[in-house]
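I am writing to request your help with a piece of structural work I have in hand. Thank you for your consideration; the sequence and its tokens are set out here:
=====
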Amino acid sequence: MEIVYTRDALAEYLARAQAGDDGREIYLDRFLENAIEVDVDALCDGEEVWVAGIMQHVEEAGIHSGDSAACCRPHSLGAEMLERIRDRRRASRSHCASSA
């Protein structure tokens, strides 16, 4: 694994990886700079949405393979942002599937 910040550094890494090609695929990921990532757990009955928890990721924001770490009380989000997150989640109730 290697973290690169420029196109030149990426080109160098890809050249090294290709030179030692052993048939494995190269996986590219991107982290968002100066971003905060949250997970929202919610329940929906097809009509109402209940936000059960908002978790803030501890590490850099970006794509994770299921091994991310998060805090169950977001440590850097204010009350206004938390309410915006709750409102956004509640507004998405049309995407909830009812199994009834």
